[in-house]
């Protein structure tokens, strides 16, 4: 076991038995310690040992969360021993790590100790292994740029600030928190006091209202005492009035009974007279009915004779009209025969028309044949056009389906990477700003041929490149990034395709040779992509030379790796990465499970889509339309020609058949004329017969009319007698009704008087009992015994219409109203007034006084809170002055060194103290702004805006700016130069050497796997080379003197 030995440094020695080493001892120098070694040799193990040995948390290193995982595999425990420089005696800290239970055993100066004691010892030396400004492990380099401004300020305060600076900052934050609490408490107290004052002000009004309500209640009490006396007096007066009304009704009843008896005899006599008249009226009614029936019979007979005469006259008129019509038809027929005869004489011979008709028939047959051919062609074209329409609809629907699938991919992009989607929308609207073509993000541009293979592509291409835009021109990419990153503040990625296309690169072996291993394709053949995207993927990810296999490949993976020499291989569910050790030349493979695809599962057949779009561009549909239009025009021409020929044929046929038709018509009309001449009627003879029949019927009608007139006269006489009897009956009936009405009225009046007498008697009894009850009630209301005389003050007689003024004292009965309505109105008014004073009781005054005392107490507390707040603000002002002034000076010093470092690199950078509100001490932070190109502005250092190399340079220069100000005994930076380009790496290295090798600076550990050639070195720096591996000499066999001797011999031989 080797020991570190170093004087006058904070690190004197360290022993390790963990992770990479069985045992190792390191001797660092007092200034810059450059630890160099190839990857995997154990450089970072030294960093892990420093962190764990100084009570650092395993999670801070970022490699494992349990301390037992830092022990070399196969060992049960590990050991870290660190010797720290301290006056007068060095401090030795030892930590034993046990794998079984992840436990640690601590020793301080070879004596058992506890973690708490170790942490106190380390804190006393201002060692902070959890501070990224002091201790920056390899896996935490990227997190430095992710530090918020507040976190960076706290880390800087702890690292380079005065010992009390961070303490003052914490006190200010606590003071500010307490100040907020006091302000909130003061505000709450103020609001509470204001509410109490307002509430007590309302209570003051309630007190006044309480006394006012009491005056109303006193008046209500007096009114309620007088009311029963007024009720009693009213009921007593009603009783006297009812008694008088009952006596008067008894006298009227006696008089009415005496006048009722003579009316009955008169009613009986009138009833008998009315019955006799009614019998006579019924007898006359029967006689009138019989006479009327006979009149009706005679009248019907007369009307029947009139109808017979009308029918005879109608028959004569019909025969006259028939004869006149016959004569007119004969005239018209003769005229028609004459006209047809003239037309027949003018018609020529029709034999020469037949050849013309035959010629027209031949032309019509030819036209029909041509029309049939055109109809067939049009039917075929229509069917073909319908088929094309269906095909066009199918093609359009398929293209829409492809577009929907692309929209689905775009929706996934928008949901996962909103900034990238916004940049995509901007790109589509501004493509004219770029000189060469720009490809959309790869996840949209890549189209899988089979979505089952999407997982291979997504596992092979990084997520950052999947959402990256691909440019063919570096200038176009800079324009795009300047717009979306600098102006729109979007977090987007962009890459540039290689100048020389790599899309057609050939694989190292043909896929047919790999079928024996289960390989079915190379990665490039599984998807389609635009040429720049494919060129970039072939250049960056070598997709043309990454085979994809099946389960068969996985089962024989060792053989595949050994025989094919591929760097990456995909099987059905795993990815194999193959490396060759630079030290042992051994092949090392690692495998990881494939994660499921998220973005490329939606596939669109690009070839099919192009074919469909080409089909739409071909004008087959327009060609069919033009052919149909030509045929349609030819068909219309043939139709017109056919109509003309048919019209000509019709005219010639009509001319040929017209002579025969005329001869036939003339013959038929002659026959019809003869028949009409034979059907003549003798009108004179018919008229004589009709007059004779009418005369005979008129004689019979005259006899019937004479008999009817006699019957009418008899009916009139009977009706006159009946009317006289009805008038007599009506007079008698009226008299009878009047007598009956008088009798009924007398009866009703008699019963009403009897009922009135009875009701008045009952009412008198009720009122008497009510008077007694009201008297008892009135006495009880005034607290009078039954036999006590009523006092004079309870007399209800008083001056009327006198309005009491109850506010001046209790009033007497005489001053109150004497009617129930007035009392009730006044009582309701007073109750309403009293009811307005709700929620009032005798305790309201007591509550008012109690709250007045509370207001006084709260006012005193509020004054104390104001004084306390003022004291806190004075303390804050004092602590702020002691904290902020040194802090601003410190930040100015850091900014000066940081700016100088950047200026020496022809770049720009600045550090400032940033806050939005000077009173919010937890929002203070250090802001780092950098500029690496002359045509850009200063931008804040973030994990997204700068590249990895730019972030590494910025981080390193900031740490170097802290180096001369550092109060911590040492600083550790692990592999920060990995992402730098050679120019920046050389500049940063020179700054590190120059700064860390000064006398006033603290010890510095710089770990790197590589160094550039011809770097500048200093005498005070220490270079530690780490050699480790299975083929290295054992430590016991290593002889440094012998190595040096052999080296000098070789140099002499070369000379």
From TrEMBL:
Query: Which UniProt keyword terms apply here?
Result: ATP-binding, Chromosome, Coiled coil, Nucleotide-binding, Nucleus, Telomere
What sections of the sequence does the record tag as coiled-coil? 179-308, 350-405, 628-770, 845-882
Query: What broad class describes the main subcellular location of this protein?
Result: nucleus
Please list the residue ranges annotated as the Rad50/SbcC-type AAA domain.
22-286
Q: Which GO terms describe its biological process?
A: double-strand break repair via homologous recombination
InterPro entries from the UniProt entry: P-loop_NTPase, Rad50/SbcC_AAA
State any single GO MF term: single-stranded DNA binding
Question: Where's it found, cell-wise?
Answer: Chromosome, Telomere; Nucleus
Question: Assembly and partners?
Answer: Forms a heterodimer with smc6. Component of the SMC5-SMC6 complex which consists at least of smc5, smc6, nsmce2, nsmce1 and nsmce4a.
Protein family (similarity comment): Belongs to the SMC family. SMC5 subfamily.
Identify this protein by name.
Answer: Structural maintenance of chromosomes protein 5
> Which organism is this entry from?
Chelydra serpentina
């Amino acid at each position: 076991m080797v020991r570190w030995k170093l004087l006058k440094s904070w690190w004197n020695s360290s022993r390790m038995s963990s992770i990479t080493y069985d045992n190792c001892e390191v001797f660092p120098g007092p200034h810059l310690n450059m630890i160099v070694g190839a990857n995997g040799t154990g450089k970072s193990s030294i960093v892990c040992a420093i962190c764990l040995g100084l009570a650092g948390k395993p999670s801070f290193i970022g490699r494992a969360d349990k301390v037992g995982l830092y022990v070399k595999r196969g060992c049960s425990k590990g050991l870290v021993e660190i010797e720290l420089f301290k006056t007068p005696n060095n401090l030795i800290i030892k930590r034993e790590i046990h794998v079984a239970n992840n436990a640690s055993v601590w020793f301080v100066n070879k004596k058992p100790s506890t973690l708490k004691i170790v942490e106190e010892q380390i804190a006393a030396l201002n060692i902070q292994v959890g501070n990224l400004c002091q201790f920056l492990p390899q896996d935490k380099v990227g997190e430095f740029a992710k530090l918020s401004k507040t976190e960076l300020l706290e880390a800087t305060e702890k690292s380079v600030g005065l010992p009390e600076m961070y303490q003052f900052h914490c006190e200010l934050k606590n003071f500010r928190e307490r100040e907020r609490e006091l302000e909130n408490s003061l505000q709450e107290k103020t609001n509470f006091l204001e509410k109490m004052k307002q509430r007590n002000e309302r209570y003051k009004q309630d007190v006044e209202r309480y006394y006012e309500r009491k005056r109303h209640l006193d008046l209500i009490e007096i009114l309620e005492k007088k009311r029963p006396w007024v009720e009693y007096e009213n009921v007593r007066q009603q009783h006297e009035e009812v008694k008088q009304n009952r006596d008067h009704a008894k006298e009227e009843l006696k008089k009415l009974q005496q006048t009722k008896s003579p009316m009955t005899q008169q009613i009986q006599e009138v009833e008998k007279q009315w019955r006799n008249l009614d019998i006579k009226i019924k007898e006359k009614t029967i006689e009138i009915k019989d006479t009327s029936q006979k009149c009706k019979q005679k009248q019907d007979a007369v009307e029947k004779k009139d109808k017979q005469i009308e029918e005879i006259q109608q028959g004569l008129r019909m025969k006259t009209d028939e004869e006149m019509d016959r004569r007119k038809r004969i005239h018209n027929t003769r005229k028609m025969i004459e006209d047809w005869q003239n037309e027949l004489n003018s018609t020529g011979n029709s034999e020469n028309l037949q050849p013309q008709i035959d010629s027209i028939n031949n032309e019509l047959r030819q036209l029909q044949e041509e029309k049939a051919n055109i109809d067939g062609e049009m039917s075929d074209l229509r069917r073909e056009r319908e088929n094309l329409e269906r095909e066009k609809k199918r093609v359009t629907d398929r293209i829409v389906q492809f577009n929907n699938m692309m929209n689905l991919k775009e929706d996934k992009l928008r949901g996962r990477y909103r900034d990238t989607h916004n940049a995509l929308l901007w790109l589509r609207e501004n493509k004219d700003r770029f000189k060469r073509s720009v490809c959309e993000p790869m996840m949209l541009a890549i189209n899988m041929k089979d979505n089952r293979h999407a997982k291979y592509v997504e596992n092979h291409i990084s997520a950052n490149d999947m959402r990256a835009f691909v440019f063919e021109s570096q200038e176009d990419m800079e324009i795009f990034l300047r717009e979306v990153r600098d102006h729109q503040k979007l977090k987007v990625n962009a890459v540039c395709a290689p100048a020389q296309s790599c899309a057609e690169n050939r694989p190292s072996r043909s896929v047919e040779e790999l079928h024996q291993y289960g390989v079915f394709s190379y990665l490039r053949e599984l998807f389609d992509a635009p040429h720049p995207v494919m060129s970039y993927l072939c250049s960056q990810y070598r997709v043309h030379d990454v085979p994809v296999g099946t389960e068969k490949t996985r089962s024989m993976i060792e053989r595949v790796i050994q025989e094919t020499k591929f760097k990456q291989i995909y099987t059905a569910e795993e990815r194999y990465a193959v490396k060759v050790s630079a030290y042992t030349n051994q092949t090392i493979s690692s495998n990881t499970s494939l994660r499921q695809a998220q973005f490329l599962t939606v596939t669109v057949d690009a070839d099919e889509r192009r074919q469909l779009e080409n089909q739409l561009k071909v004008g087959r549909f327009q060609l069919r339309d033009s052919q149909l239009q030509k045929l349609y025009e030819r068909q219309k021409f043939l139709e017109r020609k056919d109509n003309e020929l048919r019209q000509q044929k019709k005219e010639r046929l009509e001319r040929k058949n017209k002579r025969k038709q005329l001869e036939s018509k003339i013959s038929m009309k002659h026959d019809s004329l003869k028949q009409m001449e034979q059907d003549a009627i003798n009108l004179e003879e018919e008229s004589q017969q009709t007059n004779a029949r009418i005369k005979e019927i008129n004689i019979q009608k005259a006899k019937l009319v004479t008999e009817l007139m006699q019957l009418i006269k008899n009916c009139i006489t009977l009706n006159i007698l009946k009317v006289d009897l009805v008038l007599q009956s009506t007079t008698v009936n009226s008299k009878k009704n009047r007598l009956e009405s008088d009798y009924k009225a007398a009866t009703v009046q008699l019963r009403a008087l009897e009922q009135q007498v009875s009701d008045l008697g009952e009412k008198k009894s009720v009122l008497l009992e009510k008077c007694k009850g009201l008297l008892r009630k009135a006495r009880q209301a005034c607290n009078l015994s039954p036999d006590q005389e009523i006092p004079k003050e309870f007399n209800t007689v008083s001056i009327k219409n006198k309005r009491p003024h109850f506010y001046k004292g209790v009033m007497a009965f005489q001053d109150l109203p004497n009617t129930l309505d007035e009392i009730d109105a006044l009582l309701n008014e007073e109750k309403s007034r009293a009811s307005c004073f709700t929620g009032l009781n005798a305790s309201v005054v007591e509550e008012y006084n109690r709250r007045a005392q509370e207001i006084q107490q709260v006012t005193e507390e509020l004054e104390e809170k104001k004084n306390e707040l003022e004291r806190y603000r004075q303390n804050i002002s004092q602590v702020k002055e002691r904290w902020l002034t040194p802090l601003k000076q410190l930040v100015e010093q850091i900014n000066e060194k940081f700016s100088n470092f950047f200026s020496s690199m022809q770049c720009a950078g600045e550090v400032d103290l940033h806050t939005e509100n000077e009173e919010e001490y937890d929002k203070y932070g250090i802001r780092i702004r950098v500029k690496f190109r002359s045509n850009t502005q200063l931008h804040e250092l973030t994990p997204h805006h700068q590249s990895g190399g730019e972030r590494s340079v910025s981080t390193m220069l900031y740490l170097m700016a802290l180096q001369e100000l550092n109060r911590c005994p040492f600083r550790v930076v692990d592999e920060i130069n990995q992402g730098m380009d050679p120019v920046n790496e050389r500049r940063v290295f020179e700054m590190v050497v120059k700064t860390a090798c000064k006398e006033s600076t603290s010890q510095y550990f710089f770990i790197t796997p590589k160094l550039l050639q011809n770097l500048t070195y200093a005498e005070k720096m220490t270079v530690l080379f780490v050699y480790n591996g299975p083929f290295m000499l054992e430590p016991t066999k290593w002889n440094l003197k012998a190595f040096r001797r052999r080296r000098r011999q070789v140099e002499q031989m070369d000379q």
